[in-house]
């Protein structure tokens, strides 16, 4: 097996030497190639830098435009690129209306509730059309929602989530979906940041066998938004079960509305899709960054949809006849691009699953795949590791046949990749290891499944039209085949790229462009390489291997958590003097946060404090951020200038050599901490 340098816990600088052995390549099965959407190698020629940006016409033409664009790439707002300038289109029209002619009775979504005894619900394109129209009519006529308004949606994996999103898109309103597992407080802060006055939620949903009270979080969200200077004026609540209400949260008159009641006057009402400028924002998606505050990545209408559709078609190989299941959550970017927008733009059938993969047992995903005859499957390494551990022989018991599988979100270990390939894919399905980010809207790197062989543990080359480059910290290019890791960057813009950080354009430039931009005044895309914040190496064959984040972000089970965010959440506990979060290796989740705290003078160490801290993290961020351990230590290892040495703590947590600590102000502390942690 390749050495474990793709382990994020060991990556603290871009410039590390990587000694990994080449993995054996796997070739796509001929049955896959025979039916694939993209088999023409010349696509890479067509999308070469010589043909940039004109090449992206090929993606834009997958969409229906109300008005054709006049400028394919407008650089005047560099580095906020405007694609297909002058063009107008509507996203809900492209995802729904235009399919009615051929597919009106075809399933757009098949929803699988978590309780196995509950029946699946199929929503055809025609039904989706009706429901999105009614909801859009209600938003517009009762709540005054109009183009450009931001709407926060805090919902789990139920069909009413994409219905709400598509209704916003129909009106040109900007949705901001907050992952359902996030706390009400996290939701409220995001709502305030985006200036949302309307929150869409649901009373309850199933997760791991329990019906969770979700509506209760809306009250916290309203309060948190207010504390941040925002105001949620109305809360719209869907119901998990018709005519039932499963929440302890009391209904506040004036503020709260049940969707079922609000919809009544809008039965069968139609709303003309609003033709939006291509560069108008479609949605915000918040993600973690190096400082405490999450960043609202603003995605465009035309460029984003073209990119999601093009990549879903060529890389995911989605045909309208396929049954496609992405097990991610719509509350993350993967769900936006590759559960909702990409698949629907192509007229596909997209499966939505409410619950967790292991409920009631690790055979569940394979039963769903067999029952629905899913042929394209999409998930993350953390889930693959979990399923492999819980039941390595389980998939073989079921009769399902994937032609195509995706992995996304974090590096996958070659061992785990091979299990996915042989046992889940039965040696027939191709695998694409897609590398990208919330910011990038769609894939940056992947193999093209019918063209390239697969290499376990590596994503592929840059996508057609994406030209990656690895820079060392001085901005010098690291050549392919040089086993030195560097900063993964993209030379050129692409249509899926986010446009800015909502309300903080300076941070957008500082975080993603400043490092390698030589002329801040430049209006040429050539001067603005995009900085991903990941460390990577490029093999001689042009395949990239992503090693992990180089900033203070921990990628837990494929989800980004800011270490500062976690530390700030911890510091609300009164007894705590200092807190430091470090990434620690975990067999299932890949990486987990581990928390070090020191207490204020006079406070005694206790289990109760640990519990208080965990609770604080759950309330401020969500269960997803729960630390693997909380270590109460007498003091943090510090430099002479007082900086906490997180790197030393990370080494201790991961049982690695702490290296040279002679420069520390309190070197003795290290020995004490090692005893506490490693006893
Ligand atoms: C990591 C998820 C290795 C990377 C789509 C990136 C990956 C961060 C891969 C973005 C992959 C994503 N191999 N690492 N195939 N895909 N990453 O914003 O560190 O939630 O920067 O977007 O996940 O996470 P985000």
Helicity range: 25-40%
Low-pLDDT ranges: 1-7, 10-16
Fraction of residues in β-strands: 15-25%
Q: Tell me how many strands there are.
A: 30
Shape: globular
Structural class of the helices, strands and pairings?
alpha/beta
The average pLDDT score comes to 94
Distance between the termini: 30 Å
Small ligands present: 5'-O-[(S)-ethoxy(hydroxy)phosphoryl]adenosine
Describe this structure in words.
28% of the residues lie in helices and 22% in strands. It is α/β, with parallel strands linked by helices. Strand 1 (71-74) and strand 2 form a beta hairpin. Helix 11 packs across helix 12 (333-345) and helix 17 (563-571) crosses helix 18 (607-620). The structure holds 5'-O-[(S)-ethoxy(hydroxy)phosphoryl]adenosine. 5'-O-[(S)-ethoxy(hydroxy)phosphoryl]adenosine is lined by residues 287, 332-334, 408-411, 433-438, 459, 532, 534, 546, 548-549, 555, 559-560.
């Amino acid at each position: 097996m390749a050495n474990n340098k793709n382990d994020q816990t060991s990556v603290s600088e871009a410039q590390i030497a990587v000694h990994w052995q080449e993995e054996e390549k796997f070739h796509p099965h001929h049955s896959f190639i025979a039916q694939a959407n993209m088999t023409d190698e010349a696509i890479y020629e067509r999308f070469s830098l010589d043909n940039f940006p004109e090449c992206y016409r090929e993606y834009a033409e997958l969409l229906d435009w109300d008005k054709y664009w006049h400028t394919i790439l407008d650089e005047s707002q560099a580095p906020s690129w405007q694609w297909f300038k002058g063009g107008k289109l509507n996203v809900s029209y492209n995802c729904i209306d235009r399919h009615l002619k051929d597919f009106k009775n075809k399933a757009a979504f098949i929803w699988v509730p978590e309780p196995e005894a509950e029946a699946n619900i199929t929503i055809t394109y025609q039904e989706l059309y009706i429901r999105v129209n009614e909801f859009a009519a209600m938003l517009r006529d009762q709540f005054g929602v109009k183009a450009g308004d931001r709407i926060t949606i805090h919902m789990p994996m139920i069909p009413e989530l994409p219905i709400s999103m598509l209704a916003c898109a129909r009106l040109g309103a900007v949705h901001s979906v907050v992952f359902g597992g996030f706390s009400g407080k996290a939701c409220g802060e995001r709502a305030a940041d985006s200036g949302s006055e309307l929150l869409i939620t649901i009373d309850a949903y199933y997760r791991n066998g329990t019906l969770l009270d979700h509506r209760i979080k809306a009250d916290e969200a309203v309060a948190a938004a207010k504390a941040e200077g925002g105001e949620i004026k109305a809360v719209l609540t869907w119901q998990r079960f018709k005519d039932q209400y499963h929440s302890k949260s009391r209904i506040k008159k004036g503020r709260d509305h049940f969707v079922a009641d609000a919809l009544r006057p809008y039965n069968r009402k139609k709303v003309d899709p609003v033709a939006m400028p291509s560069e108008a924002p479609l949605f915000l998606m918040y993600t973690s960054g190096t400082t405490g505050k999450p960043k609202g990545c603003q995605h465009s209408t035309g460029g984003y949809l073209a990119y999601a559709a093009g990549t879903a078609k060529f890389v995911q190989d989605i045909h309208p006849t396929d049954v496609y299941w992405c097990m991610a959550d719509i509350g993350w970017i993967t769900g936006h691009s590759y559960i909702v927008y990409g698949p629907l733009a192509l007229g596909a059938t997209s499966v939505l699953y409410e619950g967790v993969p292991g409920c009631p047992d690790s055979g569940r995903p394979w039963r769903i795949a067999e029952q629905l005859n899913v042929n394209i499957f999409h998930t993350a390494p953390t889930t693959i590791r979990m399923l492999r551990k819980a039941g390595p022989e389980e998939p073989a018991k079921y009769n399902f046949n994937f032609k195509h599988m995706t992995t996304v979100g974090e590096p996958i270990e070659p061992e785990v990749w091979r299990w996915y390939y042989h046992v889940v894919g039965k040696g027939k399905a191709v695998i694409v290891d897609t590398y990208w980010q919330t910011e990038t809207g769609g894939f940056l790197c992947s193999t093209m499944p019918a063209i390239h062989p697969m290499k376990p543990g590596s994503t592929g080359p840059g996508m057609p039209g994406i030209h990656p480059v690895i820079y060392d910290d001085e901005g010098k290019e690291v050549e392919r085949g040089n086993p030195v890791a560097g900063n993964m960057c993209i030379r050129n813009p692409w249509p899926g790229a986010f446009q800015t950080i909502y309300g903080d354009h300076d941070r957008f430039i500082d975080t993603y462009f400043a490092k390698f931009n030589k002329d801040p005044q430049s209006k040429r895309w050539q001067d603005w390489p995009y900085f991903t914040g990941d460390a990577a190496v490029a093999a001689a064959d042009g395949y990239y291997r992503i090693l992990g984040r180089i900033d203070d972000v921990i990628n837990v089970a494929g989800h980004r958590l800011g270490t500062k965010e976690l530390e700030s959440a911890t510091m609300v506990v009164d007894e705590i003097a200092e807190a430091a979060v470090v990434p620690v290796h975990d067999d299932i989740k890949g990486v987990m946060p581990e928390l070090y705290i020191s207490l204020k003078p006079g406070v005694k160490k206790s289990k109760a404090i640990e519990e208080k801290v965990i609770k604080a993290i759950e309330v401020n961020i969500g269960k997803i951020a729960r630390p693997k351990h909380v270590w109460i230590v007498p003091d943090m290892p510090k430099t002479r200038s007082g900086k906490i040495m997180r790197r030393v703590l990370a080494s201790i947590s991961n049982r690695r050599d702490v290296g040279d600590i002679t420069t520390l102000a309190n070197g003795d502390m290290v020995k004490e901490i090692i005893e506490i942690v490693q006893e």
